[in-house]
């Protein structure tokens, strides 16, 4: 009985110490002042690259929305266009019949995060479906740089 009493006391003291340590660190749910809290990336942060043709150099911008910002030349207009087009980044379905209307050689890529979803998509103007997709959010692409 004497051997089990010190062991029982040691166990009781260690359990009490754990509880008091938790109480010292703050049980309010807020992290201590010296702890590191990971920052969350903006829900709407995009990098837009536009080329006059597939062989031309790209012009790139960043865009954030809510509030509009980044170095995009028409950030507010681009954000407004994206707000009106909830399916802006969905590709044209493979079985979609598209007119043979050629809109030009311009190419754009958009990468980043939009409403918490990862975006990595390409836009062209090679047929009626792709042209409609481009035109729906045209302010996002800014002024297309001239072909060289």
Structure description:
The chain is 28% helix and 23% strand. It is α+β, with helices and mostly antiparallel strands and 148 residues long. A hairpin with a 7-residue loop joins strand 1 and strand 2. The longest helix has 22 residues, at 4-25. It starts with a helix and ends in a 12-residue tail after the last helix.
- Overall strand count: 4
Shape, per Cα inertia axes: globular
Unreliable segments of 5+ consecutive residues:
7-27
- Largest sheet features: 4 strands, antiparallel
Structural class: alpha+beta
Average residue-wise pLDDT: 80
Order of helices and strands: HEEHEEH
Q: State Rg.
A: 28 Å
What is the helical fraction, as a range of percent? 25-40%
Walk across the major sheet and give the strand order.
2-1-3-4
Strand content: 15-25%
Distance between the termini: 93 Å
Number of helices: 3
Protein traits:
single chain, 148 residues, alpha+beta, four-stranded antiparallel β-sheet, 3 helices
């Amino acid at each position: 009985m004497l051997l089990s009493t010190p062991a029982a006391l040691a166990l009781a003291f260690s359990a009490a110490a754990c509880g008091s340590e938790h109480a010292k660190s703050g049980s309010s749910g807020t992290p201590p002042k010296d702890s590191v809290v990971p920052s969350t990336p903006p829900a709407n942060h995009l990098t837009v690259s536009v080329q006059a043709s597939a062989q031309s150099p790209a012009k790139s911008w960043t865009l954030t929305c809510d509030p509009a910002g980044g170095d995009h030349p028409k950030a507010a207009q681009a954000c407004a266009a994206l707000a009106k087009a909830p399916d802006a980044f969905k590709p044209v379905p493979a079985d979609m019949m598209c007119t043979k209307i050629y809109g030009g050689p311009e190419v754009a890529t958009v990468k980043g995060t939009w409403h918490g979803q990862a975006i990595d998509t390409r836009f062209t103007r090679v047929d009626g479906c792709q042209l409609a997709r481009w035109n729906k959010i045209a302010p996002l692409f800014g002024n297309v740089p001239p072909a060289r």
